[in-house]
Structure formats: C-alpha cells, structure tokens
Predict the structure.
Amino acid sequence: MAEHPNVVRIRDGYAAFAKGDFAALNNLFAEDLLWHDAGRNQTSGEYRGREAVYGFFGKLMEITEGSFRADLHAVLADDEQGKAGRGRASEMPPDGRQQPTVAVGSNQRT
C-alpha cells in the first residue's frame, strides 16, 4: 500500500531539515506558517513565517553547537493534518552528554 501523500511530505520535510535544504523546506512550508515550540525554555514560543522559523532552527543549532538533530520515528497523516513521532537529541555543552527528548503526536498541518 502506498503512503498517503502528506506522510511523504512530512518525511521529505524532516529529510530536508537534516540536510539543511532550505530550498526544499520553502516548497513545503507556507510563507505564513506558524510554528509552536512548547515548554518554558530559551526556544519556547511561537514563530510566525518562514524567516522566523528558520531563525528558530538556527537558534537550536547555535545553542547545541550544531549537534541538534530530529529523528523521525513514525508519521500518521490524512488530507487535513499529520502527526509525527520524533526524537530530538543534541550534545549540550560543556559536558557533551546527549540530551534526548521524545515528542509524539506533534501536529503538523499539511
């Protein structure tokens, strides 16, 4: 059975992020997208528009000294929305220990 086209789009987005392929992300992200990073930390908040979201990505890389990664574990999607189960990990200075987190059910409008 073929994957739903929006599952493919989400997988393509994670692959583009991993490669730093912002041209591909531009094809996937609406100009007026809204990205919400939950929690109470230095990256928490809402980011409106591609440039703000790309700035957020840059901040993640800056904070983690380039070690941030988002590992996609599973994707569910239909015609209206998608959900991604992913793990996030980075090596946080100064001790270099990996700081894994897991986020399941993150909404991604398609």
